[in-house]
Design goal:
The chain has 554 residues and is of the alpha/beta class. It contains 16 helices and 26 strands. Among the domains are: 127 residues, Rossmann fold (3-Layer(aba) Sandwich); 81 residues, Roll (Luciferase, domain 3), CATH 2.30.38.10; 99 residues, GMP Synthetase, Chain A, domain 3 (2-Layer Sandwich).
Length: 554
């Protein structure tokens, strides 16, 4: 997927059994845009709990009212239909209300990775030209000194009111803003979100997704999960600003009237997540393989301390879910975890698994209704079953990359999205992933393009050439490694290289291991193919010992 999980992996039913409550039709009216999606849920489930976050309980009626207050505040600032509103907000009830408030105002939400550094924010804002930035006060702190460089931003809204009235605050909007319903007409093909991904170069790519595509994904995803208003969807270590978290978890839950239970924190908070499942009686969870690996580690180290038997559906995406993780999670927690796959450009996951008696371990499942999945060779010719090639998909894909027709044309050909993932399909239509055609790393379900890191490293005055590679890691999938050739007469240390990167890129992109070499042969324009780099690294004496190291903390 792009800067955010390139969805990889699955859905699971505990022991293959049916849900612990009867499946019945959800009486929610048909909707064609996201404004209607929330308003229909608020009408059908007004007093039901929409969001749980710690001790906070927010009903659907309260969520809709908060979104109206945000919408009216944006309109009062001069926001008009089609304007972009950048959001620098972590998983929280505020993310949901601000997202939908932006939609209700007719504007376009642009959720940003909260780990972006100022340089990365500048590139994204330069691309989408947001009129408003809404940010958590802590995350706003490094941005304030460079606001003048973000020329398109006319207004800033902070969440907590720490700037002494310099910027309007979300708290003020909730206390004093109008809750009147906003009358803005939205069409199905209007833009519902711009989700930024990285790419082969450091220039960001904004994936344009329409209301039609987002509503379709939320509906079909929930249908295939047999999700109802009785479900309690857990949200942990899966950012709302990435499409797997936004579309499949957040929007899917609201579409079905489920309760969304937000557990703050990262993988280090795995015990808190498991404890929250027990306390809140969660019934569904969609995450990345890294979280399942951590849960296994906890079970092996401490035993099973919390009751997770209420969860009827475990899903994994963002990276390959190994058979080892599937088997060990089943052993410790008594539940299956199934792989599902998709990418930001396809909104979210586009595969699912049929009932347990037809499940195929190692497969990412079959195409969701409304989607076609095929495998093609380098010339674009569709391949027969069990032949490996590039996976191409057709359905409610992205409208394109924002203001980037050239990049759009490179990946959408005759209506088919070229995913850059490699795999094959069997005779029954089950998809199996085998690798990537694109030179990309996946760390904890987070997509990283080596070119992003190489471009930054090449700015350091001591560096002559650099090549970035993914190094296999049992917990994280891959970690970032950099092979560096220094200019003649210079010496450097690993920490020196990392320190240079630290203020210039998100923390997950930082090289975990730096190898120094006297000569990087075969590099053109500071780049090297993944295969050639792996061949080269096999000659670096320290690599073998590094790969055989003991696992450190997550």
């Amino acid at each position: 997927m792009a800067d955010g999980p390139d969805l990889g992996s699955g859905v699971a039913r505990r022991g293959g059994s049916s849900p612990p409550f009867p499946i019945r039709p959800i009486m929610v009216k048909q909707v064609t845009n996201l404004k209607q999606l929330l308003e229909a849920a608020a009408e059908a489930f007004a007093d039901r709990t929409a969001i749980v976050c710690g001790e906070r309980r927010i009903s659907y009626a309260e969520l809709d009212e908060a979104a109206n207050r945000v919408a009216n505040a944006l309109l009062n600032l001069g926001v008009r239909k089609g304007d972009r509103v950048a959001m620098l907000i972590a998983n929280s009830p505020e993310f949901v209300s601000i997202y939908f408030g932006t939609i209700k105002a007719g504007a376009i939400p642009v959720p940003l990775d909260v780990r972006y550094r100022v340089d990365e924010l500048g590139l994204v804002c330069g691309s989408c030209q947001p009129k408003v930035l809404v940010a958590e006060s802590d995350l706003l702190e490094p941005v304030v000194p460079v606001l003048s460089r973000l020329e398109s931003i006319e207004h800033v809204i902070e969440l907590d009111g720490r700037y002494g009235g310099r910027f309007p605050s979300y708290r003020e909007i909730m206390a004093n803003g109008s809750a009147e319903k906003v009358d803005i007409e939205l069409k199905p093909d209007d833009i519902g979100v711009i989700s930024y991904t990285s790419g082969p170069t450091r220039q960001p790519r904004g994936v344009v997704l329409t209301h039609r595509s987002l509503v379709f994904e939320a509906t079909v995803s929930g249908d295939e999960f047999q999700q109802t208003e009785e479900d309690r969807m857990m949200m942990f270590a899966l950012p709302m600003y990435h499409m797997f978290g936004m579309a499949s978890v957040m929007l899917g839950s609201i579409r079905k009237g489920s309760t969304l239970i937000i557990v703050p924190g990262t993988g280090r908070s795995i015990s808190s997540f498991l404890e929250t499942i027990e306390r809140e009686r969660g019934t569904m969870y969609l995450g990345v393989p890294y979280i399942y690996a951590l849960a296994i580690n906890v079970a092996e180290r401490e035993g099973i301390k919390f009751d997770t038997s209420s969860v009827r559906l475990w899903g994994s995406g963002g990276a390959t879910l190994t058979i080892d993780i599937i088997e060990k999670f089943k052993h410790h927690y008594g539940a299956d975890v199934l792989d599902i796959w998709g990418l930001t450009e396809s909104v979210s996951h586009i595969t699912h698994h049929p009932p347990a008696d037809r499940r195929k371990i190692g497969s990412t499942g079959k195409a969701l209704p409304g989607w076609e999945i095929r495998v093609a060779d380098d010339s674009g010719k569709l391949l027969l079953p069990n032949r490996t090639g590039e996976i191409v998909v057709r359905g409610p894909i992205m409208a394109g990359y924002y203001n980037n027709p050239q990049a759009t044309a490179e990946v959408i050909k005759d209506g088919w999205l070229q995913t850059g993932d490699l795999g094959y399909m069997d005779e029954d239509g089950y998809l199996y992933l085998t690798g990537m055609k694109k030179d990309m790393l996946i760390l904890k379900g987070q997509n990283i393009w080596p070119g992003d890191i190489e471009e930054v490293l090449c700015r350091y005055y001591k560096v002559a050439k650099v090549a970035v590679v993914g190094i296999p890691d049992r917990l994280r999938g891959e970690i970032v490694g950099a092979v560096v050739e220094l200019k003649k007469g210079f010496d450097a240390t690993e920490q020196e290289i990392r320190n240079f990167c630290q203020s210039r890129m998100a923390d997950y992109k930082l090289p975990k291991k730096v190898f120094f070499t006297g000569s990087l042969r075969g590099i053109t324009a500071n780049k090297i193919s993944k295969k050639k780099l792996e061949d080269y690294l096999s000659d670096v004496p320290s690599l073998a010992s590094y790969l055989n190291r003991k696992e450190g903390p997550p």
